[in-house]
Amino acid sequence: MTWKLPVSGPWRVVADYSQIIIGSLLIGIGVNLFFIPNQVVSGGVTGIAILLHYAFGTPVGLMNLALNVPLLLIGWKWAGGTRFLIRTGVAVAVLSATIDLAGPYLTAPTSDRLLVICYGGLLDGIGLGLVFRGRGTTGGTDVIARIAHRFLGLGIGQTLLIINIVIFLVAAFQFGAEAVMVALALAFVSSRVLDMVQAGLSASRQAMIITKDPDGVRDTIFANLHRGVTMVEARGGFTGAPRPMIYVVVGAHEVGRLKLRVSEVDPDAFVAISKAQEVFGEGFTPPEPETG
Length: 292
Prior knowledge:
Strand order of the largest sheet: 2-3-1-4
Radius of gyration: 24 Å
Number of domains: 2
Largest sheet: 4 strands, antiparallel
Order of helices and strands: HHHHHHHEHEEHE
Helix content: 55-70%
Shape: elongated
Strand content: 5-15%
Structural class: alpha+beta
Number of helices: 9
């Protein structure tokens, strides 16, 4: 049986805020264990706070909070409203408090660059993934990116890239090129882990099947995989002859059974299988409603 988060009512809100809080705690722990002691700068406001810490000795968490307060107010007015303000405010507050309050009790487990990249990226990616699954954000430069997109027409990704390039250039001047290379590698690991957490470990797969026996393939999918299918009227590009296509979404663990059953019905069937990043609806996780 697959455990699913509640999808409505107060339990959905509890589940969302639990993920935001746990995710923020993990990010803060990762900052204390791997970023600050190894002079590794993350992107965004936390990275700026780390730079200020090494330049002026200011507390990282306090500066992260101070820099985020005006951005939260801007985001509340122009980028996301009250829901954005509350959820992002919780994430920022927990993250900042964790960095400063837990810091004295946490000791860096390693200074090995490879381990810093792997485990720092793992904690950061899991933490961010949980925050995003709770439909929150960690504030910071994504607010600036949203505002730039709204008023200047700049792409959100483009703006974030420009901001992070500036941060890493300052870090290179302050810590040296090697620290920045470690930070970039860690960010790559974090982004991959983040994608995995958001999509889930058992991401679904979508298959497009072109076969001379569409009814037989449809029936074997119904009987053996218990999945619905969509019959698409297609036409061969070279011959111009009708070539019905079947579209079906299955779990990752069902791909082997799908290929076996299709080949039993039509060994010459053309099958293209790819990852479906997110699937919801009948037979899968229901869509999540908006909550406070």
